[in-house]
Amino acid sequence: MRPASILLVAAGILAATASSSEPGSSGDIPDGIVSAKGLKGFVRASKLPDPKDPVLAAGKAVWAGTCQACHGGNKAIGAPKITSSDDWSPRIAQGLDVLFDHAINGFLGAKYAEMPAKGGNADLSDADVKAAVAFMIWASGGAEPALGYAQDTTNK
Ligand code: HEC
């Protein structure tokens, strides 16, 4: 390949990457899912959209199997509810590294509510847990960092 065509290909990849994180593009969360308090009632995976991104789609399956029981909105347990931006925005603000660490290794919140390591499912790989975190924040007001993580993982 001549240098000029390499540049054209590189520019194409950059353009594709940039456009996929713009609001309303295919990888983005549909309107009406995320709100301050989140969807009404207990939120099962079946009430949530299927992400087009394969990393987030895999995360949805993990979430349904292990995380939904608490993060669907189990008030007794005090887990932040998926789709609630009130619950998630201060947590998303900590950055993905902190969220991944707390999800993989477990975490005791300020009010002594426990997030068990890997949601109590030791069979999950670290990558499974990260994908589930990415899916959860994608559906809770953090589409941008979620898609960023998914793209970085896919391009590795
Ligand atoms: C047994 C209930 C339970 C299960 C199952 C569970 N969580 Fe949690 N999780 C919690 C609770 C409770 C908190 C809130 C702790 C606090 O801040 O008070 C939490 C918080 C979190 C946080 C936020 C951490 C932070 O720093 O604010 C993430 C991310 C998370 N969970 C991811 C997951 C993922 C991914 C799964 C599935 C693999 C999962 N959780 C399964 C109970 C659970």
Q: How are the SSEs placed, and which strands pair?
A:
Blueprint: H1 3-20, H2 54-71, H3 85-92, H4 96-105, E1 107-108, E2 114-115, H5 126-138, H6 143-155
Antiparallel strand pairs: 1-2
Helix pairs in contact: 2-5, 4-5, 5-6
Residues 62, 66-67, 69-71, 77-80, 91, 94, 98-99, 102-103, 107, 109, 111, 113-116, 118-120, 124, 129, 132-133, 136 line the site of heme C (HEC).
What are the key terms here?
binds heme C; mainly alpha; 156 residues; Cytochrome Bc1 Complex, Chain D, domain 2; globular; 3% strand; 6 helices; two-stranded antiparallel ribbon
Quick synopsis:
It comes from Pseudoprimorskyibacter insulae. This protein is mainly α.
Can you walk through the features of this model?
The chain is mainly α. It has a single domain (25-155), classed as Cytochrome Bc1 Complex, Chain D, domain 2, CATH 1.10.760. Helix content is 51%, strand content 3%. The protein is built from six helices and two strands. It has helices spanning 3-20, 54-71, 85-92, 96-105, 126-138, 143-155; strands at residues 107-108, 114-115. A two-stranded antiparallel sheet has the order 1-2. A hairpin with a 5-residue loop joins strand 1 and strand 2 (114-115). Helix 4 packs across helix 5. The radius of gyration is 17 Å and the shape is globular. The protein starts with a helix and ends with a helix. The structure holds heme C.
